[in-house]
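Fold it.
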Amino acid sequence: MASFIPEEKISEIKNAADIVDVVSESVLLKKAGKNFTGLCPFHSEKTPSFTVSPDKQIFHCFGCNTGGNVFSFVMKQEGLGFPEAARRLAKRYGVELPNKALSAEQKKKISQREHLFDLNRRAANFYHGALLKSPAAQKARAYLIQRGFSKDTIESFKLGFALDGWDHLLRYLSQKRISTLLLEKSGLILPRKNRSGYYDRFRNRIIFPIFDVNSQIIGFGGRVLDDTLPKYLNSPETMIYNKRRSLYGIHRAKDKCRASGTVLIVEGYLDLLALHQHGIENAVATLGTALTADQIKVLKRHAGQMVLVYDSDEAGIRSAKRCIETFWEEHVDFRREDVFREEKADTRILVLPAGHDPDSYIQENGSEAFLNLASNAAGIITFLMECAIREHGLTTEGKIRVISELQKPLAAVNDQVARSIYIQQVAERVGVSEAAVMERVRALGAIQYQQRGPTTRSPSGTDGHDSVLTRSDTADGLLTDGDSRFERRIIAMMLQFPDILPEINSLNVLEYFENDYLKSVAEMIVNLNPTTTEQISELICGIEDDGQQAMVAALALEDESWNKSGCLKLLRTYVDNRQQVRSNEWLEKQIMAAEKNNDQDLLITLLSQKQKLAERREKQKMALLGDK
């Protein structure tokens, strides 16, 4: 959609907008040297870690690792896509956007989307009116009252009722001259098997309109009033509705989530309505599926802590475990391990007391009791540990199985202090030594290292964000296990001292990058070829990945002095090291071949070369240590 706004207009908006001005509307900023700081609007904190640079027109929070330019801020703060954010900024700063210059295909796509939104609005009004006024909806009204839902809740979420019959909605919308082709695309009607006509998808069901983050209706859910199957029926996916990215109630919850810093995630429409009616408005519901990676990304824009709420039965526990798997896949990618890819959302699991779902618990015990449970919800490791103990017990064999199940989650905890605390907790709960648990975790880590190659995380700072690279890091093992950290350092240099870019090219530095994720960012910088640091905001405009945007903002805001001689020394050290690593890998292969062929003369020669290479690396290491 970004292409629907001409690039020259994007540049005009970027040049007209002032990020300090925009951020100041929602964040109290204070001058701190050449930058501004304040409390982050995207997570709860007491000490300011949110920095805005007026010179570079970027922001970054060193607490939750969110960053970007003025477009990124508006998108995250308002829950908008790029085109909507750009249009909002254009209107604010008086930049006129053309209404033409769209291709026929683009115009058709926009027109279809607008027609589908309008159609869903009309359908929702029809269902809502039927629920409130139709005598045939009396049973549905009684059911909602019996479940404890007020008139305000019914109005706020625009609940409706699909009358019992084959074509009530079809006839109503046909009278409004809406084509059956558009109705079929919306999923509101279905073709008869013999293709002789159409019939309504939703019949004799309570209707739950599904809103997007901008309060536009994108689809519907329907629930029966009897034992008919399926109990719940949802709209099919359409041009405007993707259930893997959508969340029920997000339009009403987003502001409360930002204010509280927490989002509660339940599984059903009625559970969500019960929470909102009892004043717990920072809650959303998934749409008939386990929590997806796309939904996690949406929620991370609005809250720093997630509480997944489940029933205590077997199905609830299974759902919780499925969601945890999704969470690990989204937050900890073992195949591409990069600190800026992981946004540190605090995720907890709330399993309700036996026999309760969120609706029944809050109706019986009230909102304060529910919030107390949520505030004491277990972290992921604790939850998985208790589940494993319940399943396997604490016999000798049971303990072995428990530790085996916890290996991967423990290995995925990147904060060394947190991992040590969790290992101590597991060891005490299961009744084995910490050393035994640590050994199993390290064994798995070694396997993952071999599978993904030599990339490592930079050490975490005590303030909750990851440091880029210190001088002592460069001397630690002469980069062999720290190339990713060194590559981030090079990117920081490229952003803060663009005069070095010609040398980056002449030395072919990017050819030696081991981390593909970092390499793609470095290539973007080279392609843009900025001449000043003020062009960083322009660079961010071309980056779609949130993690890469945050990384660029963080590295650009690092306070460090660069000069050409220091930069060249850093680059030559890196290139020389990578060349040595590749030479060493080649030597290892040749040594293995010589051993296999029992070629003693060649083997002695190769081992001598390997020894000289090791001595050279040691001298370089000592030189770096001497420079500290």
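The two ends are 50 Å apart (CA to CA).
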